[in-house]
Amino acid sequence: MQDVVGGKKPHLPIFVGSTFTDMQEYRKAVQAALGQLETIVRGMEHFGSKPGSPVEECLSVVRSCKVYVGVFGMRYGSIPDNNDKSMTHLEYNEAQRLELPSLAYIIDEENQPILPKHVETGPGAEKLRALKDELKKRHMVSFFTSPQDLRARILHDIPELLKNMGADVSGSLKLPGDLGDEETLSHFEKLPKMFSGREVSVEFINEASFDSAMGGACKALGLEIGATVTAYVNIAGSGRLQVFAERDLAFRLCQLQKGVRVQARAVTAFGAYTRVDWTDDGPFATPETEIGVILKRILNVDHEKE
């Protein structure tokens, strides 16, 4: 029986396992992607105060899920009392014991800058290396760089995994995967949710109008609040589109001269959030969507002004 595009989708619980302090921005990116796919996200942010031991409560949440997603950086994580493995490692082991369909993502150590404070040393580093070796043997791991890159990989991988489980996230429409950049952006402008998470090359003239991105937009797209800039620009071969950039890329864009031509790689992004306005009658919630492309790297800056 053919599924109906736009019909009710399964809200499958997915457990997201990782260390926390060093992976916060990456976890936000994963949650934004999974929220876009209308799945239920479970992880350490949702444990709250519960009566059991931290380990047992954590593993019980893993047992309540249908899919495991593991995101591994450069920290092994804290080891609970009476255990020789970290909480993140225990979560992974429980998911494998339950034979949950699993996706494993490991940070690209060669291409992603990592703060020294987020790099494990000593015995923890040895345990982490052994765990990563195990992941590589048991899974087709994917290596990620930025939070945006991880988000794009999640948006690509999860629908296929759920399809193999007999579930449907995106409906029965078969979307082409070999479109050119201009055609992809054209489809994205009309159907942003369906064509989100696609890598494209973009070219635009810097109009020197980048401003700090609003918190709602950052939350919807899994970007870092207070470290993201945005502006509407004319994409060559396409139309006027909102561009976002984080941290080093954001700073670099703000330093560019007006009128220079920028060539970059980006990922299409769509997200939703609720805007709350306060009126005399109390809070008034309005659903909002955010659409744009998130720059991943700048390929070239032509300083010959137009």
- The total domain count is 2
Q: Largest sheet, if any? A: 6 strands, mixed
Strand arrangement in the largest pleated sheet: 6-10-11-9-8-7
Examine the secondary-structure arrangement and name the CATH architecture of the largest domain.
3-Layer(aba) Sandwich
The share of residues in extended strands comes to 25-35%
Looking at the structure, the CATH topology of the largest domain is Rossmann fold
| Total count of strands | 11
CATH superfamily of the largest domain: Toll/interleukin-1 receptor homology (TIR) domain
CATH uppermost class of the largest domain: Alpha Beta
Number of helices: 8
Share of helix, binned: 25-40%
Structural class: alpha/beta
N-to-C order of helices and strands: EHEHEHEHEHHEEHEEHEE
Low-confidence stretches: 1-9, 45-52
Task: Name the average pLDDT.
Answer: 83
**Span between termini:** 56 Å
Shape: globular
In angstroms, what is the radius of gyration?
21 Å
Description:
By secondary structure, the protein is α/β, with parallel strands linked by helices. The chain folds into two domains: 13-164, Rossmann fold, CATH 3.40.50.10140; 181-302, Beta Barrel (OB fold (Dihydrolipoamide Acetyltransferase, E2P)), CATH 2.40.50. 31% of the residues lie in helices and 28% in strands. The protein is built from eight helices and eleven strands. The protein has helices at residues 24-36, 54-63, 87-97, 123-138, 147-164, 181-190, 215-221, 247-255, and strands at residues 13-17, 40-42, 67-72, 102-107, 142-144, 199-205, 211-212, 228-234, 240-246, 261-279, 282-302. The strands form two sheets. It has a six-stranded mixed sheet with strand order 6-10-11-9-8-7, sandwiched between helices. A hairpin with a 5-residue loop joins strand 8 and strand 9 (240-246). Helix 1 (24-36) packs across helix 5. The longest helix is centred in the middle third of the chain and has 18 residues, at 147-164. The chain is globular, with a radius of gyration of 21 Å. The termini are far apart. Mean pLDDT is 83; it is low at 1-9 and 45-52.
